[in-house]
Amino acid sequence: MDIYIPIILLFVLFLLNVPIAFSLIASAMFYFFFLNESIPVSLVMQRFISSASSFPLLAIPFFIMVGSIMNYAGISRCLLAFADSMIGHRTGGLAHVNVLLSTLMGGISGSANADAAMQSKILAPEMTKRGYGVPFTAAVTAASSSISPVIPPGINLIIFALLANVSVHSMFIAGYVPAFLMAISLMLAIAVISKKRCYKPSRESRASFKERLTYFLRAVPALFIPFGIILGMRFGLFTPTEAGAIAVLLCSIIGFFIYKELKITHFKLILKETIQGTSSVMFIIIGAMVFGYYMTLEQIPQNVASYLISLTDNKLTLLLIINVFLLIVGMFIEGGAAMIILTPLLLPAVLNLGVNPIHFGVIVIVNIMIGGVTPPFGSMMFTVCSILRVRMVDFVKEVAPLLGALIAVLMLLTYSEWLVMFLPNLLKS
Questions:
Q1: Which of 97, 207, 217, 248 gives 211 a disulfide partner, CB atoms 3.0 to 4.6 angstroms apart?
Q2: Which residues contact 254 (CB under 8 A, 6 or more apart)?
Q3: Nearest CA to 180 among 110, 92, 100, 115?
Q4: Nearest CA among 270, 285, 54, 246 for reference residue 156
Q5: Burial, 150: exposed, middle or buried (Cβ in 10 Å; 0-12, 13-18, 19+)?
Q6: Peptide bond preceding 153 in cis form (omega within 30 of 0)
Q7: How distant, in Å, are the alpha carbons of 9, 119, 341 from that of 32?
Q8: pLDDT, tens digit (0-9, with 9 covering 90-100), for 220-275
Q9: Domains of the chain by residue range
Q10: Biggest CA-to-CA distance, the chain
């Protein structure tokens, strides 16, 4: 039982609200200092350094910087106007716009919390003015923000690809269909709720073709960014890491010369936000890598895989068990940390039963995004509730049907591998 003490310690530290990175590092160092003194401390320190030396990890600060530039470049407002022209005329129009905007923003920012914060400040006040309840507004904003990281260049897509040793490009491509299904499911749930509550559309009438075309043409530069990144990687013009630098360049050019809202003075704030975001993510990754080193030495992933396989040799049943497990874990542990900790544990078991690692990656990422909306520790829930000053009890009541819609999509993705793998297989051929 001694070998499991660091895992127990890890969860105790989580419950005591110790920052995730410190919890991971403290638990791992407890093992190396007190339970396994045969490993030199210098070797452990090398692990700390080598964990941050992976070339693909350079993509993370670039894509974090893209999300920051986007907010100063006027891209979000341009996409908001385009989304409103497309769907604002429907009952519950602004709630639908909220979902559509998250879907459009996903290809640019790739950060759920950034999307939730941005929409809480830009779109949520307008929703409350139009008669939407503040708790419902918060619920829609949090639930829709779960779409952003599933669409490339979501940071979780990059991290999972590194953890599972699969192609970042394939993970990027695999994210589109699940993200669009999440958007459709949320819009269907919102349509039902809006009809019952008689929420008004944001526009009195459907936008004309000419008006939609005008907004679309203005949004084209912003919409080109994610597709330009994917096409560039598809044709071998640049790697996923280099794609981050290209995205920063494209966003800067669009902000300076097309929308003309980005200023040189903004870059001080952009760099500050990028450093803060990158530091927190990288610290967690380093801690998780060292913690993973301990688990590898004690063969814990292999033991967990053997136990799961002993429960069932049916991959569909195993995926159901893993989904339930991840949904529960997601209620208590921040999504990115849960993925980093649990992927090395669960991956050997699913691979042994023939599950495609890309398919499994999508399941894990959608699952942890749902966790970000659920109490008691959902990060997007905390973001929107703190900005909009909504009580958690009121938020939970409003978000329940939206969570039901997202879980339905999760089940569909779990049992429809062909749906997830359609685009990766199509573009591979």
A1: 207
A2: 73, 75, 221, 222, 225
A3: 100
A4: 285
A5: buried
A6: yes
A7: 14, 44, 18
A8: 887 777 777 777 776 777 776 787 788 888 889 988 888 888 888 888 988 988 88
A9: 10-428
A10: 73
